[in-house]
Structures are given as structure tokens and as C-alpha cells.
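Dear support,

Our group has been running a series of protein-ligand predictions, and this particular one with DP6 is the one our PI (initials K.S.) wants archived with full inputs and outputs. We had some confusion internally about which version of the output was final, so please treat the block below as the authoritative record. The input we submitted was:
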Amino acid sequence: MRHGPNAATARAYSNIALIKYWGKRDSALNLPAVGSISITLDALYTDTRVTFVSGLEQDKIEIGGRTTDPARFTGFLDRIRQHADITARARVESWNNFPTGAGLASSASGFAALALAATQAAGLNLSPRELSILARQGSGSAARSIFGGYAEMHRGERDDGTDAFAEPLLDADAWPLDVVVAITATTSKSVNSTTGMQDLDQRSDYYDAWVGHAETDLAAMREAIEDRDFARLGALSEMSCLKLHGLMLSTRPGLIYWNAATVAAMHAVRQLRADGVGVYFTIDAGPQVKAVCQPADTDRVVAALEQVPGVLEARRSGLGPAAHRLD
Ligand code: DP6
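Confirmed final output from the archive:
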């Protein structure tokens, strides 16, 4: 039994992938079939407090004040308990400052914050890489939210997942970008990412092409970031997004995450570009549109997206820092 504090609070920020992750090479360890590159967002975050309480019968999970089924979390917490050699169940209290489960990457910030808070509460001091490997087992995209700024997730080759982690590519302040999130719905999405990706190799004829081109896209994005080439970064991220949604549409049964406002916002972004504003969209497994731009153009992008019918809110974000403790 290790001795340390039995409670800790951590904050982790959401991220959006510029080169997308979709598909798993192993679902037990949650190993991605492809690598991914993301930016961490400072406006969307999760705060999580974990307390290990002796005598508690089962893990108690509260998200935004509402008790949640502990099933998805107990297995995750068990890995930490095993590593720390403790048996106490946990009380987890978590708050998102944005709608949960609506394609705003709550699982990314959520599992990154949980990985940090729970390991610290268990008396473990993991390295960022170890935290990333742990967070990945909660949600693939969470591995990237351990880091701030620009991060790359490696698919890895090993069966045990020890080489499937994210790494920082560039700090947030080395190349500031903004993201305007056009929120078009606040209800939970119909098919979550994990379900959407299940047995994808059997369910989409496009899957091999998706996996086969991933390395080329990642290399191009790495280069765009290294060169601070915004037009290239934007074009590549829009392409990766549309390719992902092509794959989703090709899945049996077809996954349609867009609503009418999603499509209208995509056209609004392209219209802005035709008018000379450097802005590019990306969309995850939900109906929200994230418009990536340079800070000088953010006001104009917000104003244009607010005008789109069906857009409820256009929330601006800069690039966020790494996950950190709050207490
Ligand atoms: C479309 O990380 O939510 O946002 O690993 O099953 O929890 P699980 O999936 P998740 O998938 C994210 C998919 C995506 C693209 C991305 O973030 O790279």
C-alpha cells in the first residue's frame, strides 16, 4: 500500500484532431488503427476530483452533478488500483464547462482529467507518457489531451500498447491559432465513437484506404506545423475531416453525424474563404463545426458563424495547456 493523499483534482482540456483517429487495431487495450494530430483547446475543459474512500461498495461517478453508470469507469480505475496496490473504491466528481456527449470531445478531456486526478489520488506519480497510455485506455482521443498545444498520437505497433501514446509536437504559444466552435445541437449524439468504430473493417469498404493513407496525411501535417504553414494545415485538416465523414457515411449502417446547420456552417466557412478569410472547418462524431483560423480573423469568423441558421452559439477558443492539477 502506497501512502499519499487519497484525493486530487485535475483539469484537462478538450482537443480536436486535425488529422483524425477512427478505427481500432485492438479494442481491449483501445489501440488505434491510425495515428492522429490534434490541437488542445483552452475554452473547453473538464475538472475532475477523485477521492478513494475505504468502505465504499462501488465506484460512484457524478458528471455535472448527475450520477452516472460506473461501468465505463470501473475497469479504468481498476488499472490504477492494481498499479497503486489499493482496493478502495473511488468517488469521482466531474464537471464539463460544455455539453457532454454532443461531439465536443468530452471523453478526451474527461479521461485525461480522470487519469491525472485518479493516479495522483492513488499516490502514483506517472510521467506524461505513462498518463497518455493510461488515458488512451479510457478513450483514444484522451491520450492527446494530456498535452497542450499541438500533439501527435502514435498508433504504435506493439500488442501491449506501450508504444501507443501521444507526444507534444509544438507548444501553444509557439504558434497561436484560434478555433470557433459552432454549436448546432446540445443533445447527446446518437452513436458514440466507440460504437461507431466497432468492427469497422467488416462494415466499411473504405476502411483499408483510410488506414492505408494515414501515414501520408500525418507526415504532411507534421510538415505544415513545422513550417507554420497555416493554409496547408487548414487544407489538410478539412480534407481529413471530409475523408473521415466519407468513411462514416460508408459504414453499414451509415453514420450521419451532420444536421442541416452543420452543412450550412461548412458552406459558410468556404464562403468566408472565397471572401479572403483564412478559415477551415473540421467536425468530429457529432454535429458541431469547429472553424480553425488565425487570431486576427477570429472576430470575423464568429460573426459569420453566428449568422448561420441553426447555429446556437459560436464559441471561440485559443490553444490550451497540458492537463494539470488544480489543488
Ligand atoms: C472523430 O476517442 O471518442 O473525434 O477511443 O472509442 O473513446 P474511443 O473514441 P474517441 O474517438 C474520437 C474520434 C474523433 C476523431 C479524433 O478525435 O481523432
